[in-house]
What does this fold into?
Amino acid sequence: MSVEILTFGCRLNTYESEVMRGHAAALDDTVIVNTCAVTAEAERQARQAIRRAARERPGARIVVTGCAAQIAPDRWASLPGVAGVLGNAEKLRAETWASLPAAPDSVGDIMDPAAEMPAPAPVSSFAGRARAFVQVQQGCDHRCTFCVIPYGRGRSRSVEAAAVIAQGRSLLARGYRELVLTGVDIASYGRDDAGFGTIGSLARQVLAALPDLARLRLSSLDPAAIDDEFWALLAEEPRLMPHLHLSVQAGSDLILKRMKRRHSRAQALAVIARARALRPEIGIGADLIAGFPTESEALFQETLDFVREAAIPYLHVFPYSARPDTPAARMPAIPMAERRARAARLREAGLAAAAGFHAALVGRRIALLHETEGRGHSEHFAPVRLAGPPPAEGAILAARILRADAHTLFAEAC
Ligand code: SF4
It folds into this structure.
């Protein structure tokens, strides 16, 4: 039996799982669980997966890594069937996997400013995916009151443009037509090394160096830190996809303040308005937390009104999840049932916005990246279902929107 990788959480974890797949290829009968610590639910799912692996593959060596393992290694090491726990830096080193049988546990102090984080190893493919992720940044220097990510990934570090371009070039050579620049807080790109520039200038360099790259996308951006180079590129470069996903978190200034976010409601609205002015067809997405401690019904209403006013079609909504040792976890909590109910109301508002956004695309021509079984995403990142025989996975084709609902665009090739 070979190596099985179970990945939880963000695109960066997906990228790193492919790095580990390469490093651990020589191992046998191993299950790697790449955990996420963003919510209690993500940790619960990882524990469940570990128990299932221990039950279904009793002979397998289970290795746990990722942010939850980095933050609380002992808690994961004590689970039945777990042979080893690796930190987020250690999991990216080839030598860790070479020496694994002998040294299963290795979790370094990632918060140590001097701690070295290996440069991302090249990845040649993404199992079962039509778009490829390219890591450009790691870690975070901010301290939002609800978040544990900095404790799982350490300080912000940027990847040199030459390495990003080389990774992009090799993925293009493998047939990928769309690349997604990803990290933890990519808007902080270059802040750790002035010579690196900004996320906007990096995107421009990638597109200039890879003229055959059809589509470039960026993962989530901090609305407080979008640079002018990015705006200029968005205005003039059609290969930069008209899709902006923002880490907004709330639409209430008081809650944003208690979250220690760096933007206000008005600034987030201004960012969305600027994006739409530059690319009217742009698809907007946002991360939102429902039921943050101290959020009264009136403060929640401000976030709901924000979603409606900005008409944001693509929402990632999380009921607030208390994380150990974070300032927010010490604030007066909202009952979980109420958090979930508020999350449902936000999602409903997002669906209403998506219905409007999709309806406006009916009759229009789009460029569809076909992923699998006739499904894919448009340049705006709208989900699309294609009529007729599906083209090759990863193909980009022109399609016309025949009809739409809040969830999907229904199209035919044209
Ligand atoms: S910006 Fe805030 S929410 Fe995002 S990773 Fe950093 S601390 Fe967490």
